[in-house]
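Hello,

Our lab assistant flagged a job as stuck in the queue for most of the afternoon. It eventually completed. Since we weren't sure the result was trustworthy after the delay, we are filing this so someone can double-check. Below is the sequence as submitted and the structure that was eventually returned. Let us know if re-running is recommended.
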Amino acid sequence: MRLVVVAGSTQTATIDGISAAGADADALPHTPSADLEILDYGEPVQSPVVPVSPTGCPTPAVVTRAVREHVGFDVTAVDAGLARPTAAPTVDIGDEPGADIRDVDPVPDADRLFERARSFAAGLPDDEIAVAETIPGGTTTALGVLTALGERPAVSSSLPENPLPRKRRVVDAALATSDLAPGGAAGEPVRAVRRVGDPVLAVVAGVVVGASEAGTTVRLAGGTQLAAAAALARHAGVGGPLSLETTSFVADDDSAGIHGLADDLDLMLRATDPGFTALDHPATNAYVAGEAKEGVGMGGALAMAARDDLPMATVRETMVALVDDLLAAGTARGSQS
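-- returned structure --
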């Protein structure tokens, strides 16, 4: 199995109260770059931060990395417009981060991104791939795309309390700027991304379409952002089977509407519970309290672990050890600076 992780940035993430990805505003732009390094090397290499929320919840990349240490799946990282460089090897498809979706054309090159991703995916040698994302603020842009396409307007959040009213106000402002009514871009997925989306959604949708056209089995490894990408693929004409592999944290979040979205888009939904309630550790406790929930292929990685009969206890133990090492190393770097 190959995990394709599409990484990028957007100015939408800087809107107050939208995202918990990053300990502060200075760390936020480094989060997706550091996520890719953690997946590849087990730690940030070039990125100067360990991605944690303001309360200390670690990035879902640590869970995906924990599974990878035992299952050993391949990772292909795709740069769809990172704000900061990464030491992880990447396939470069995008050049610029997305703008604020309340701006005109926040993803002006959406068509080019979609087509480049489509061609890239068509050339992959695998019979089966999982596709994931890392982009702060991505659930707000996903809500924008879902609304523009006329799909169910519900998404999850990296925050314990989903700020859906705030996100909907942002999306309403974005639609007004773009002179789009809800459903106004139905059947026009590239237009939806260009007007109210982000570069990662353009690339993930292109990967799904290109892989599907090549006969590759596609697993969407994530939550409502991957559901939004599936919506884009459906509106681009993909009618074949697609599965959505997410976490129990997203599936149990009624505000996320993931079950309804999966039904609407004819997605086979699989939610995996890592059993974090079995541990008393700040990292697992933060997830149990409702932070992060999903991202960087966490749900897809947990599904891989389950299929390979890897005990969730092993995943938890590896994840906690990884977090402890990362935070200790981060503290040491900070004391030396």
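-- support follow-up --
The delay was a queue issue, not a problem with the job. The result is valid. The first strand starts at residue 2 and ends at 7. Confidence is low (pLDDT under 50) at residues 332-337.
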